[in-house]
């Protein structure tokens, strides 16, 4: 029987803080009563700075981040529209699949899993798009499968450099609330988040922020939509409600989570995620392991995907951690299955938790046969946390 | 400041039992871990008898009942398909709107709000459909807006009598789990429920049961779908998982709620709903009020919509109940706004709660100026609950 | 299987409000950390106005109100000391037993169960106490067994009229927080409460307020005490802590409950208890039943003890309510067993809950064979709640 | 603002497992209803094997372990009785103080804080007690202040060797439920535990197990007692209830905690505590620190008290851990204040948590100026947890 805290280091759902958990324990309430608006409005208002926006409108979409991805598409585009995107991990691949399933023409730039969105190639394609056929560029801000953060601002520069007016859609599911996201500054038109990552709530809500340009594009979009009708939801929110019965308990949780984020201060939240991530990365490097992220310059501050040494099945590592140590790591997805495991380090986290993650990873790797030195990783992280070391250079994995 | 129990008599979300509430207070967990299937499978298995099916496959769709409505359409039909349905309340109207938004050709039979699905007219239309253009018949089993239950079995008979092979889709959101639902026996092809009514959980999950015929129809359906891809979700469920991060806390709640339902015994659950509804209806009649349901023979056992006397604004009644007595009634929807209020009497309910509902309704009606005799309604309900009276005939409202 | 809300009408523990329940769901914490004082101090400060005191010091005694009763004795008196008290119900009887067990010489004034503390007789005894042998007078402010409130202020007048300097100890377990209590004004020296009645928390804390005179008396008290050492606990509280590991979750609950009480306003809390009690009493009278309280002038606003008609076993009434209607009434205690049942109407309560109490009492009485008219009691209460009636005179029971 | 899990390593209250926390979220209930016994009985039955007894009777005493200490005294002894005990830490000192406060004549054997109960000296004193004046021997099984476990079985041997019939009282507050306790085998007459240590619940219940001999001694005990009247409580428990309103939520928690302990299996629970403690001790030794426990042979498996190096204030270490790392260590008590800090490693614990404890202790010690090598302790613990090392010898601290 497993005992003690279940150490959860998957990159979402993340650990729900005690006060957020508590806030969700509510009797059911009438979602059509006037009081409901008093619950919804501060949630919408509190989300705006987290998205880095004053101009966008925010919709809460019961379902998940996937629902918000779909809503971004079906409310602004039309069947046959061309969109441009990089595919460099499981989640960008799934978004591309969705776009195709919804009838878009998806121009895909395939790069290595472990690379970020290739901005120069994006710029080249945009520049080549003489007739402005590309209606939108999709960017996966943080590829949760590979632990790679892409430079959304640079994509904006690319668009501007080409005087291209494509919409810019960004999947921020595993970034928003944990690392800087500047919707207005970067000119993002549709930004997608979920309740269960940096926002520290259970899954169940997709969150979509739409820029004025995106709202304008909705006028000319005629894809079939009903459950995910963004215009209807925004109008309902305006009146303090939802189009249908919402998961009110998640709104209570989100309100409490936003209070936490703003109490800590977003700058401090981001700095903390960076510090903790540096510790994890220092630990990984000290163990002689490589990350899936090809270079530390775009290594994600919310999740680290770690390659297991040759001959060591990452699934075995994960299984040992789970069954012996009550510790949960993320698995390698798609082509990384068995080759990598992931440590999520986002949301409500601190130094002690990261030490546990590394310490149990070491024990599990060793038990699985990997030639790691027990304590090496955790010690490196401690030096980071003690402020004594800069994170060492990572060995860059050859794909 | 309001004190005491908040008495919730809206027809959903319903009161969450203490043990279901407790079951949902869980640390986050890895939805890709092997243990997750051990949570999901009993939920799927426990739902089947609630839907009255052995043959159907069940999908849990994060979102709401509305999501399940849409999934029923987009996974089995094609744009331009003709569907037949009655419109006799807010929810049948919304479903019709959705069907149109998704590109279906909707043949609507408009009948009075307060009438059930007009089976003879349905049969007539089916009989007239010589070329089998009608691909599906939609039935709102329980119109939550009017408190009217329709006879799904009779619609099946109509289909059979016409040798018509249209699919039969049923909205059971406010019926399933509270009143008998016989999916297999009635030949229902798509049945839709939600977590927040008879299943006594918070909102957040739509539930869709698909018959073998519906599953077969999926082969020929090509509507764009991704978030609500039923085939993908059923395959994921088969492996003990979801297509994307699910609201796991609701699965814990649903498991506990199903344990309650099956411990009580479905027959007893249905009998209880009928007994309590009879009490509420007896009370309404004793107060000299009429129900929106035109005849008691199709009055719903889960919700009663009550017309306020001429000159009495139902919104005022609702507001008094809420602000003075911490009691929540449902409002009149659409054309019934201001003309009716609703008492939801479904889910985790007992006699004492129904007495509160009637007692506070009396006080609120009187305070709003209605000529009701305090105590008359509640006394009539007590006689029902004491087993001393049969429910008296209701006055049937002229529309 | 019982369904729906469990209607709890015992006179404690009372219904815990949702926000108080939520506040108690806390991770364990270090009770020796500096933060702990930040939890304790507002609880102590918030209790003072509830006790009607600025001068007293308050101690939280893990255990129960019984612990606080004992601490009041063992910290201020000495073995052999004479104390004067009336015995007119189960709880005054138990306190007398305790005083004897602790070695006091207890001069008991026995009056009927249903009568209040006989102030004139108290005054007579005090006047006759020429040598000042009576060291303390014990008053049970609210006899929970009989539903009778005694006049503490009048006892103070009696003491003053006799120029008697006995200490005045008051059991306010079922009164404090629900009806006016004026510790300073009445010159109460030791006032005892518990967490589980008007303070709306679970049981587990006795609360003791000690006047400056009581604190002075502690100098000369030499009874053995350790767990209940009041001086040590007050000193610990002064430093923000306890003498031993406290039930911290109850402090979180108490803080939330005090926030509720002060948000509602104590005057409003007391008015509400009176209004609801008037409704219950009107209902009892309308049913032709008599209360154990001999006269409405001293009928308690927190609990009503109701005599069952001749030949009707109150235990049967209680059992029917519990097993058929998921409703819990208090039993008759001691000589009242089988002859009376009690409706607690204190703490977090509203009109709808009182209607349920009366409605289910009617159904249960009738099922047990009592000749009550269904609806009569509840209707009378509704008229009180609607502001249309004054509470009618109660028939006074001959003991 | 502190983020992430609050890492709690005080030696009680301990971390409450999620399922125990959940079990305590209950509506209030009638403690006099027949159902209440169904809650109490399995708790009493489940506790017996944890105490290692079939013969003893168990009483749950609302309050704390301190209350149970007192009840053990006041229900079996008389003022003036002589008792024999060692004083070798804060908790044995407090128990001695209590015994004196309650009027006992306490023969104290003072030994170093860090030593266990000196069994030979106990035996010498018993042998010297020709007239059998010693009525009871008190043993602190696990001195929580020093992290020292005493050999209760050896004290029994001493009693038997001297043919002495003194009662044997044992404080098992921080041992019972975590390390082996054999009440029957060791001939313990009164064993004391609390809800908040190995039993993984919040504080609020003292637990007292009384042997048949202790029960017999109650016949001749005449100390004043009322709140802590053991005979009355045992009689109440026999009937499924308490003498006064109990903290029912703790009973729900205790039932869930006992289910956990018995599901894991007591042998496994004890083995786990030993393994984790070995890891912590290996870590402490690797850091070059000494424990307060003078020899590893009696080092406690539930708490380790660690001396800070000369010149390093342990309070500073604790403060750094709390304010920078959201981690809570126990302080040095009494003469150990500032000289030692304590890591509680009992209750619901696993390897990852112990790694955090050591890792944060290292960071905090270093930040406070101690010459520790980051990672050294944690690495040593990992080797223990990996099964690769035996715990190294500890340096024995010179007092």
Describe this structure in words.
The structure is a homotetramer of 399-residue chains. The first copy, chain A, folds into two domains: 20-262, Type I PLP-dependent aspartate aminotransferase-like (Major domain) (Aspartate Aminotransferase, domain 2, 3-Layer(aba) Sandwich), CATH 3.40.640; 265-385, Aspartate Aminotransferase, domain 1, CATH 3.90.1150.10. A seven-stranded mixed β-sheet of chain A has the order 2-10-9-8-5-3-4, with helices on both faces. In chain A, α13 runs antiparallel to α14 (376-385). Chain A has helices at 18-23, 35-51, 65-74, 90-101, 119-128, 152-161, 183-186, 212-217, 230-238, 248-264, 266-286, 314-325, 351-367, 376-385; strands at residues 7-9, 57-62, 82-87, 105-110, 134-140, 142-143, 148-149, 167-171, 190-194, 205-210, 303-307, 327-331, 340-344. Chain A contains 14 helices and 13 strands. The longest helix of chain A is centred in the C-terminal third of the chain and has 21 residues, at 266-286. Mean pLDDT of chain A is 96; it is low at 393-399. At the C-D interface, α3, α4, α10 and β12 of C face α3, α4, α10 and β12 of D.
């Amino acid at each position: 029987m497993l005992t003690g805290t279940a150490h959860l280091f998957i990159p979402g759902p993340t650990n729900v803080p005690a006060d957020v958990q508590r806030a969700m324990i509510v009797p059911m309430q009438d979602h059509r009563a006037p009081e409901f608006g008093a619950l919804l409005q501060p949630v919408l208002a509190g989300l705006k700075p987290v998205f880095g926006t004053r101009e966008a409108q925010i919709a809460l979409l019961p379902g998940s981040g996937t629902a918000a991805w779909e809503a971004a598409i079906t409310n602004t585009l039309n069947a046959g529209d061309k969109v441009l995107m990089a595919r460099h991990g499981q989640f960008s691949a799934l978004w591309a699949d969705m776009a195709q399933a919804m009838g878009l023409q998806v121009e895909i730039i395939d790069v290595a899993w472990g690379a970020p969105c290739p901005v120069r190639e994006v710029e080249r394609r945009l520049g080549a798009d003489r007739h402005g056929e590309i209606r939108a560029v999709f960017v996966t801000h943080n590829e949760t499968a590979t632990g790679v953060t892409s430079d959304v601002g640079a994509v904006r520069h690319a668009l501007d450099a080409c005087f291209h007016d494509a919409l810019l859609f960004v999947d921020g599911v595993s970034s928003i609330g944990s690392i800087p996201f500047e919707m207005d500054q970067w000119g993002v038109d549709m930004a997608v988040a979920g309740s269960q990552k940096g926002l520290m709530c259970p899954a169940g809500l997709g969150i979509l922020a739409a820029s004025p340009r995106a709202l304008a594009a909705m006028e000319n979009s005629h894809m079939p939509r009903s459950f995910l009708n963004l215009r209807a939801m925004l109008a309902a929110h305006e009146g303090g409600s939802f189009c249908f019965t919402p998961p009110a308990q998640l709104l209570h949780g989100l309100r409490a989570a936003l209070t936490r984020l703003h109490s800590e201060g977003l700058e401090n939240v981001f700095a903390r995620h960076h510090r903790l991530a540096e510790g994890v990365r220092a630990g990984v490097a000290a163990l002689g392991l490589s990350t899936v992220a090809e270079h530390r310059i775009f290594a994600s501050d919310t999740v680290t995907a770690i390659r297991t040494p040759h001959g060591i099945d990452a699934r075995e590592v994960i299984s040992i951690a789970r069954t012996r140590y009550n510790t949960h790591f993320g698995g390698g997805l798609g082509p990384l299955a068995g080759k990598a495991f992931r440590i999520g380090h986002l949301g409500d986290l601190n130094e002690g938790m990261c030490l546990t993650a590394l310490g149990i990873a070491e024990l599990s790797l060793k038990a699985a046969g990997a030639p790691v030195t027990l304590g090496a990783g955790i010690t490196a992280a401690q030096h980071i946390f003690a402020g004594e070391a800069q994170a060492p250079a990572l060995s860059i994995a050859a794909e």
